[in-house]
Amino acid sequence: ATVLVFGPVQGAAFSWISTLCSAFLTFFIGRVSGGAWVGRLGGERIRGVVAFLGRRGLAASALVRVVPSAPFIVVNAAAGAALIPIWKFAVGTAAGIVPKIALVAALGAAAPDGAVLQDGFAGLVAFFRSWTPAHVVAVAAIALAWAAAAALAHRLYADLRGRGGSL
């Protein structure tokens, strides 16, 4: 919605800032409330996320944004409960939320404006018919880049869950 209201560049910036603010708020709620509260909130699965975040703070903070693992606020609270250093959470989250926001901004830039949609289905059909092959290639490239990034993040996530150590 932010991208649609403010445009792809300004909307993406506002989305990034507001998402970080939300992440920090729920991180500190998890930090203050502790692991028991987060465990009750998310159940057995979230206990694994807490353990993963505790072992791999920076990398985990970034990867859990791309790979679906648990709801955003639960992951943030789990990071706080895992007592990972705030800088690892901040850097990982700031980088990890970029791909989704960039995808939405790119698709928002290609989306029809309100005037097109006023004509209903006929306007939408006319919008897509006006696309050049370059438009189709650009949207396909964005979708493929997103799929490749998600696959890579999933593989890294799986590899990191399987090994000990920290980053």
Question: Could you walk me through the main structural features you see in this protein, from its secondary elements to its overall organization?
Answer:
The structure is a single chain. With 167 residues, the chain is mostly helical. It has helices at 2-6, 8-33, 35-55, 57-66, 72-81, 86-96, 98-110, 114-118, 120-129, 133-162.
Write a brief structural summary:
By secondary structure, the protein is mainly alpha-helical.
Distance between the termini: 34 Å
| Beta strands, count | 0
Tell me the strand percentage band: under 5%
Give the helix tally.
10
Identify the quaternary structure here: single chain
Listing every helix as H and every strand as E from the N terminus to the C terminus, the arrangement reads HHHHHHHHHH
Name the average pLDDT.
Answer: 76
Describe the largest sheet. Answer: none
Structural class: mainly alpha
How would you sum up the global shape?
A: elongated
Low-confidence stretches: none
- For the CA atoms, what is the radius of gyration? 19 Å
Helix content: over 70%
Task: Lay out the secondary structure.
Blueprint: H1 2-6, H2 8-33, H3 35-55, H4 57-66, H5 72-81, H6 86-96, H7 98-110, H8 114-118, H9 120-129, H10 133-162
Helix pairs in contact: 2-5, 2-7, 3-4, 3-5, 4-5, 4-6, 4-10, 7-10
Annotation keywords:
167 residues, mainly alpha, 84% helix, 0% strand
